[in-house]
Amino acid sequence: MRNFLKIALVASALAAMASPSFSADAKPTVVLVHGAFADASSWNGVIEKLEKDGYSVVAAANPLRGVKSDGDYIRRVVAGIKTPVVLVGHSYGGSVITEAASSSTNVKSLVYVAAFAPDSGETAAALSGKFPGGTLATALAEPVALDGGVKDLYIDQAKFHDQFAADVPEDEAKLMAATQRPITDAALNEASDKAAWKTIPAYFVYGDADKNIPAKALQWMADRAHSKDTVVVSGASHVVMVSHPDKVAKLIEEAASSK
What we know:
- The termini are far apart.
- This protein has a six-stranded parallel beta sheet with strand order 2-1-3-4-8-9, sandwiched between helices. It has a three-stranded antiparallel beta sheet with strand order 5-6-7.
- α3 packs across α4 (92-101).
- It has one domain (26-257): Alpha/Beta hydrolase fold, catalytic domain (Rossmann fold).
- The longest helix is centred in the N-terminal third of the chain and has 17 residues, at 2-18.
- By secondary structure, the protein is an alpha/beta fold.
- Helices cover 40% and strands 15% of the residues.
């Protein structure tokens, strides 16, 4: 009898571990992850449209310190959500969601918004230079030196509008330039560990006038990931979610409603 009880308790524990800690039938929550030189407010237009359509949204604060540590932070954010999640990343945030989703159990789809979708061993810096057309290196301000030889990178405010947000009104771009958050040079050169897009459906949206990540590189990553839907916005800059929130929100909702 005692052995039977032990077996029953072990079986019960294993079943609990195997069962998802979220409601698979619930409407997905959208988790938005910003990239370098931006902050969570860059999603404001997208959030407004998603919430109007009944979606719960979390715009996480990406630490921008390193792919693995940032990915682990976002993974913990996702783990605390008790519904399926559509995980959305912009720019370097694409590297972060790729890392985070690889060990998350409730991510149903990934949406890359002008974002990196690295394979194992690839870095954001290498991917951005894979095809010609990117001009970020010439638009950076003098780096801020941190301990241990690490450097914080910013875009020169005088060059921010043209480089980062050319299709955004100038006054808005000035505010974005002043409030931009830096990324470490180490983060852009840290290799990804796992590629979640190999096992989780992926969607892509980007502008063909992107100066941070060349459009050819974005298309190449979308094709490699067998994107379920790729939306290319004519004339859009790197911050396509700011200039065209309707198109970005529409793709996110498509990813959320897919079976």
